[in-house]
Amino acid sequence: MNEIAITSGRMNQGVDPVLHAWTWEIPLYLYLGGLVAGILFFSAFFYLRHRENVFPAAIKIAPLFTPFMLAIGLLALFLDLTHKLYFWRLYTTIRWESPMSWGAWTLMIIFPLSIIWSAFWVKDVFPRWDWKIPFVEKSIDFLARYKAYFAWALIAFSAILGMYTGILLSAFNARPFWNTSILGPLFLVSGLSTGAAFILLISRSEQERHRFSQIDTFLIGTEIFLIIHLFMGFLASTSVHIHAAEMFLGGPYTAVFWTLVVGLGLLVPMFIEIMEMRGVKVPVVIPAVLVLFGGLMLRFIVVDAGQSSRWLYKFMEQLIF
Amino acid sequence: MRYAMAIDTKRCVGCADCVVACQTENNVPEGFCRDWIVEETIGAFPELQLEIRSERCNHCDDSPCVRCCPTGASHYEEGGVVLVNHDECIGCKACIASCPYDARFVHPEGYVDKCTFCIHRVREGKNPACVEVCPTHAMIFGDLDDRNSEISKALRTRKHKTLIPEAGTDPHVFYLL
Amino acid sequence: MGKKLNRREFIKIAGMGAGGLAVASSFLKPVSLFGQSVSREKLIASTFSEATPTYCEICFWKCAGWVHKKDGRPWKIVGNPDDTHSNGRFCPRGTGGLGAYTDPDRLKTPLIRVEERGKQVFKEATWDEAFDYIAEKMNGIKEKYGPECMALFTHGSGGGYFKNLIKAYGSNNIAAPSYAQCRGPRAEAYLLTYGEGIGSPERTDIENTKCLVLIGSHIGENMHNGQVQEFTRAHMNGATVITVDPRFSTAASKSKYWLPIKPATDLALLLAWINVIIEEELYDKEYVKKYTYGFEALKKAVKGNTPEWAYPITTIKPHIIRETAREMAAAAPAVIIHPGRHVTWYGDDTQRVRAGAILNALLGSWGRRGGFYAPSKAHVPKPEHPPYPKPQKGWRDAFPDKYPLANLALSSGICDATIPSTTDACSIKGWIVYGTNLMQTLPQPQKTIKAIQNLELLVAIDIMPSEITGWADVVLPECTYLERYDDLRISQGRVPSIALRAPAFEPQYNTKPAYWMAVQLAKKLGLSAYFPYEKIEDYLEYRLKAVGSSLAEMKKIGVKNLPLEQELYFLNGEDYEFATPSGKIELYSDTLAEHGFDPIPRYTAHEEPQEGYYRLLYGRAPMHSFGRTTNNPLLTELKLENEVWIHPKVAREWGIENGEYIRLENQDKVVSNKVKAKVTERIRHDCVYMVHGFGHTQKQMRRSLNRGASDTQLITRVNVDPIMGGTGMRVNFVTFRKEVA
């Protein structure tokens, strides 16, 4: 029998009994980052394939939301900081070994990109839109000549954004539940999936909806595949990782994860979408909202569960579970 | 110069003097601690063994906390001591999540704090507060690059270990067994 | 388990809306431990600090040290390297001493009771009002019953001034709980055997010993500084440590032998060891011949106490008993059977400690290197005063023929003498209680309350609003040791030494030092002649001058070690006259025989707990001094509450999980506060253990209120040592109550 205890009364707020550094701000930011990545990716991708007329929602309407989503995400990120007055330090240096640093800079690039990209389509969506300031009007017209380059840039950066949200967490090896390289691809696929779901939600075109249903179904399938591999990887690894996986296989996170994320967020919408493709009429809002909800839950749960797993002082978990 | 600390588990009685001394020396805010005592009992009555350890930031040679810091606030200084520049820390808490030893915490003033090996004392040629106060002389601090330092001699002559070496961070706090 | 998280998840998601709060909280102003906004750099960058010498009052080791300030604000306390008590390193309690100064729950002003005793309704009073009240009552008691009916309980550096006052007033009823509730049996046992006591700090030459036998001593959790340091040095030098303890203590974990003895059977083990040492002729023959008296009687008496006899009683295997005895003999004379410190366990404690003393004598360790040295104490004259009046009666008159060999007053005796009965010749009417929380110090708290209710005056002098202050008529708030001068520390040691306590801070609030209080009260009582120096600085200057020093010098050095005037080790063949009736070490005690007690210790079985009950054992934690520190802001961070140690088999039987809160109920149906269970292999299955000093009920002490459980509350029975009146407290048995509500 092995008894272990901290006998000097350690209870550092935010670290004990389990890590509680990040509550809602970071999962929300990761979610919005993934969602934006998905939307911009599809927008740029289908633009490059000249589908402007076929997928108007994907290419023109959805991107209009992205600057606001990013702004909310950045605000959440800012609110999470505990030393806010120094936030500008993020932009005085690039640290290649720090995913947080990449994230800061990637966002710094994508944010203006998304604004410019949206600006390209504003007049298509709101025909009576007036920029008011002639300089702005002229700049947009000028940049619009390089739409293709912007599209390529967006493809690259949205992929980085999507991946990075997962790599950010997997870089923290000290949290056994995040210590897996599957998190990066998982969050990327989830981001694309939520992007597709969002497009599905706002689309008015039958053809577009059908296409994105297909895309989304494929992405959900990939996600399920990755999640299975995630757990297989943990169970085949060391005891801390098995312990981390067990949180989801009989432990405290079992119910929320398998019902909200996998059940409602993945399996049910996939099933509905497959039924739809077979001709059963279901209001498209249902699977779309479920996927969006599932993605949000995925981020929240993964961020929370990762913080609940630790290498040392596992006995502290007794205090909350 | 490579600073390191060794704690003699044969001498340590787990009195937590190192914890209080650190608190007063470094004005650690109430409710937080930079070091702590762990008691580990192995065996079943009456065949028992007890190991008592004073733990803190290990000032790792290959610290994930330095690597993941987006602003460079978390950095190495002389002797490999890992310190946090308060003016550069934004409080993103990435370093807290990346530490396998859970040694860091968010100071009420907003920046991230942890054991500093009392670098302000070391620079004056003194020992860290915890080493200085330990009544049983269970703690040694010194330069691993100096063959004749007390710590180098101790590590040469005594069996020792580090905590979760499999985390791969190359910690600089050793436990003499 | 899943349900719990769902709730937590839900709350967190719902709490998203409290994001606004999150924004606000992240901008909260940082507050340092000492209550002011502090920039870390500011405090650490500057290296200048002012240092004041002091000696610690957190426990009775009284280590000398330096109080460091930065820009007038408290910074830290460190040890004085010249002091042999600490060798420059304070223990965690001393290091955390600043917490006593900054504790916002401190007593702040004199209080006078306005409602029924115990209701804790006080009015704030001026010092003058308080002293007038006390003087009036004391004069009244003197007139009506005689001055002998005032008693003083004291446990602290300021006690000496009140001792002087009470003696001047005409009473000898002065007791420190450290006698009958702690070290008393040890003092008498060694006095009876060697004609000398052990004293404090103990005269054990631990750092030079080759074999240390700890029987009921938990060095390491008992953080008596110098002793722990010596223990470590001896241990690292290869000394064999033999620990006899029902619990795998820290000391046990560093021992070569851990004997998990059945509680209450230690005397059997000691007798078995004596048997082995004698039968195998392992004793120091020359030493025994030259210095001891009664060897043949001893040999005869322990003939039947073989290891085989002791085995079923103690559960220690015979071969272990023999092996350990041989280890001791091999190391002799550098061997110490440690006399213990708190030894009031089962009521036969004087005899048990005496058995240890006898064993030391057989091994020849008394007066030899690695055994027991001759302690030196500085002689520092006090200013003269008129002779004390002779009291006509004392607490003893309440117990004629009892406790004949008690050399000091029994606090429990005084307490008993306060409860009126038909046989008493002196019923005490007034108590002054200095620096001791009698409600947790004296066992059988129900008796203490009964006694208090019969008092006409109860004065409590304390730093914190501890439970005893709640019962007082007058509460006098003393400032902490960091805010006052006190009498010189003159303690025994390898070298004689004196230490100065000087104030590092001005007294906070409306608190005053005990010396000042005693002087003022003396004025009111017309006893100023006994306090020739109104200011303590002048008193100290007088004393220091007499040994060739001065206040100025002591302020610079803190501790002065004086020249050694006697040999440390004195029994290496020299002639020596012991202060005993026979002039020798009494293995057989005529004194005891004369009073009808066993001249040689004899084992008697003690009551065992019944089914479902477990013997309650208690002890110390290294970061606390019992109730003294349970509200200290720095030390409560280390340990906020105590736990009850339970063997895993017992826990399984009762369905108790590690960390679960339960209650303890004793044999008299008294139920404790809820306390955390520590399920551990480190304790026997027939007893439970907890740290003493928790379970406070005073609302004014916010940090300690209801934290942990009070063992005192469960000690409703005592076995009184008939020899000297010590209250054996480990005779209570507890069972578990799982309903915590």
Descriptive notes:
Chain A has 321 residues and is an all-alpha fold. Chain A has helices at 25-48, 56-80, 99-125, 134-144, 147-170, 183-202, 206-235, 239-246, 254-277, 285-308, and one strand at residues 2-6. Chain A has a single domain (25-319), classed as Formate dehydrogenase/DMSO reductase fold (Up-down Bundle), CATH 1.20.1630. Chain A contains ten helices and one strand. In chain B, 20% of the residues lie in helices and 25% in strands. Chain B is built from six helices and ten strands. In chain B, strands 8-1-10-9 form a four-stranded mixed β-sheet. A two-stranded antiparallel sheet of chain B has the order 2-3. In chain B, strands 4-5 form a two-stranded antiparallel ribbon. In chain B, a hairpin with a 2-residue loop joins strand 2 (36-44) and strand 3. Chain C folds into three domains: 111-180 and 379-561, Rossmann fold (3-Layer(aba) Sandwich), CATH 3.40.50.740; 200-374 and 577-594, Dimethylsulfoxide Reductase, domain 2; 614-737, Beta Barrel (Barwin-like endoglucanases), CATH 2.40.40.20. Helix content of chain C is 32%, strand content 15%. A seven-stranded mixed β-sheet of chain C has the order 5-4-15-14-13-6-7. In chain C, strands 21-23-22-27-20-24 form a six-stranded mixed β-sheet. In chain C, helix 8 runs parallel beside helix 16 (349-363), helix 14 (307-314) crosses helix 15 and helix 17 packs across helix 19 (445-453). Classes of the chains: A mainly alpha (321), B alpha+beta (177), C alpha/beta (741). At the A-B interface, strand 1 and helix 3 of A face strand 2, helix 2, helix 3 and strand 6 of B. Strand 1 of chain A pairs antiparallel with strand 2 of chain B, so a sheet runs across the interface.
